[in-house]
Amino acid sequence: MNGDRFADLDHRSLQSWLSRELNEPAILRSITKFPGGQSNPTYLLETDSRKLVLRRKPFGKLLPSAHAVEREYRLMAALRSTPVPVPEAIALCEDREIIGAPFFIMQMVEGRIFWKGDLPECTTDQGRETYRELIGVLARLHAIVPDKVGLGDFGAPGNYFERQVGRWTKQYRASQTDDIAEIERLIEWLPSTLPRQERVSIIHGDYRLDNMIFAPDRARILAIIDWELSTLGDPLADFAYFAMNWAMPHGVRGAQLGGLDLKELGIPTLDEATEQYCELTGRDSVPDLNWYFAYNLFRLVGIIQGIKKRAIEGNASSANAEAAVSRILPLAKQACAFADQAKL
Questions:
Q1: CATH 2.60.40.10 fits 3-107, yes or no
Q2: Would you state the pLDDT for residue 1?
Q3: Angle between the 236-247 and 124-143 helix axes, to the nearest 10 degrees?
Q4: Which regions of the chain are under pLDDT 50?
Q5: Is the pTM of this model over 0.70?
Q6: What is the CATH number of domain 124-341?
Q7: Going along the chain, which residue ranges are E strands?
Q8: Cα(296)–Cα(207) distance, integer angstroms
């Protein structure tokens, strides 16, 4: 067989495991690695009878608590019976001997993924409905009572942002390769200015446009993907992360909306998006978002710093790792700019 058809996985071992788990003969025809996937590499598996998606931890030494595919699998399995759209979680493998790292298999959901926030593929009406769907599905996620779906212990108690600032500071320190003054400032400023937490919800942790699979013919989300950072915490973490698209300048790539004529595109303003989210979640308002924006960029710096360390060690999973690493200093500077604007 042509090894190129099976990416970097041991297809014979995986094929045997699949046959056992699916309780049916599974002949692997091909394995295709999806582009990107800097954190948990993801693959399309084509068997003689179906298409599946495999998501694994990176090979090699990993930072503590990172790349938790086991948590992703548990979360997706728990949400399957709720109004929140997720792919069907089919099987989890924690045995490293099968392909060299723990992984899970899920349903392949066919549909559209939008990569640019201005939705060039859509009409004005379609753009409006797409953003209404994004905000509506986020509100549905935050309405779920964790205990009722077996996820009451999915996150630690206490202030979510306090935990997260501590976690990402540790993650950054564990993979640190340079001394960057802006990051040191954030490490000092964030824990001393923590916002008060009023609610606890299941949060996605990376709620963004290209983590949604939409129906081919209408503005309906068929599946939210990439649940690696999910936990229990402050739902404003998700909303502020999504809202940051309005605060960042539009570029040739990504979902950022700053500087665009939103009315012409059918895209709500941040005030309109906030009003819809508040109406659906029973809030009167949301607090000043600049602190949350600074935190989100600090967390992103921590993620990219991990990519940089893995690239140095030869374990980065994407050819685009170098481009991602070049963003560390600009992101740290932008985080400090948001910190300067924060009304505490």
A1: no
A2: 34
A3: 160
A4: 1-3
A5: yes
A6: 3.90.1200.10
A7: 28-33, 42-47, 51-56, 89-93, 103-107, 201-203, 212-214, 221-224, 231-233
A8: 12
